[in-house]
Write a structure and sequence with these properties.
The structure holds 2 protein chains of 2 kinds. Chain A is mainly alpha-helical. By secondary structure, chain B is mainly α. Chain B contains 3 helices and no strands. The radius of gyration of chain B is 18 Å and the shape is extended. The two termini of chain B are 17 Å apart. The chains are: A mainly alpha, B mainly alpha. The interface between A and B is large, with 72 and 66 residues.
């Protein structure tokens, strides 16, 4: 759901940039108080892996394709939505600057959707569900809802921008990303989480383990 | 860095490379969810030019053409850049060790 240049008027683009800068301030504070040196290899590897997997568009019905956004997984493994925000921001900045995937004027909006909404929804749904169901199931549902709600937010933004009509935008964006959430985001996040939990539980934030 | 952390780095980066190369050959070329929505609701919006020229547009290296090899090189370059930048960001933002 990388928005290209021209989809959102500049005046509205600025609003998303301002929100991203404010969240960025809190993310830097989080890192300076909580990001352990031992977590840095995992952080960098997750960024590299997510960049690669975002290039792997998988086909979904209706002649469409999609890929995961990765921010819920990073947030859950490293124990904070600010971790997801930082890693996905790096990925989105490189995608926009070097590869033209997502525009520069709308970079703030893309970070807002995939980096902020994706991270916060994924992390807090996971946290809310974990006492009730097994952690792997919580990862799946949290990751699914993260990309779905980010897509719904994107439809609202493009409606405010006057680019998509609201109702049809919500239906298409919601439907496509619900499918991507089930077959990509939910499944891949759960596989990576379970693998890490078995091989390197010491690197997963203690609050994200059973 | 401990050995098991080095192993994580190596295994992780190798997996990222394998995904990157596979993506160049096997990724779906169908429009993604947002493009597909735009094609149905407002195809004119897709004609707007980007405000800058990317050096590897559409995950391809221009001098190597449109082949999957060109794509694999571009995506592997991206993996390396993202890895390095994420590592750098983590290193400058990490908490100070209490000594």
């Amino acid at each position: 759901m990388h928005i290209p240049d021209g989809f959102i008027p500049i005046s509205q683009c600025i609003v998303y940039y301002v929100i991203v800068i404010i969240v960025g301030y809190f993310a830097v504070n989080w890192a300076k108080n909580n990001l352990d040196e031992r977590q840095i290899p995992l952080l960098a590897v997750l960024g590299a892996g997510i960049f690669a997997i975002m290039a792997m568009n998988i086909p979904i019905p209706w002649g469409t394709s999609g890929h995961m956004i990765g921010s819920p997984l990073v947030s859950i493994l490293l124990g904070s939505p600010y971790a997801g925000f930082l890693v996905i921001s790096v990925v989105l900045i490189i995608q926009a600057l070097a590869f033209g995937d997502g525009g520069l004027t709308v970079l703030g909006a893309n970070i807002f959707n995939m980096g902020i909404i994706g991270s916060f929804v994924g992390f807090y749904v996971f946290k809310a569900l974990k006492p009730l169901i097994k952690s792997a199931g919580s990862v799946f549902i949290g990751s699914f809802l993260a990309i779905f709600i980010a897509a719904v937010a994107c439809a609202f933004e493009l409606s405010i921008a006057g680019t998509f009509p609201l109702e049809a935008g919500l239906i298409f964006m919601g439907l496509y990303h619900a499918v991507i959430g089930l077959v990509a985001e939910g499944v891949i996040s759960t596989i990576v989480y379970v693998t890490m939990k078995n091989l390197r539980p010491d690197l997963i934030s203690s609050g994200s383990l059973d | 860095m401990e050995n098991k952390d080095k192993n994580l780095l190596i295994v992780g980066v190798v997996i990222a490379f394998l995904i990157a190369i596979s993506a160049a050959f096997f990724a779906s070329t169908n429009p993604d969810g947002l493009e597909s929505t735009a094609e149905k609701l407002n195809p004119g919006a897709l004609d707007a030019p980007a405000v800058h020229e990317a050096i590897m547009p559409d995950y391809k290296i221009p001098i190597f053409g449109d082949s999957p090899i060109s794509g694999a090189i571009a995506i592997v370059m991206g993996v390396i850049i993202v890895f390095a930048l994420a590592y750098f960001v983590g290193s400058i933002l990490k908490k100070k060790s209490d000594k």
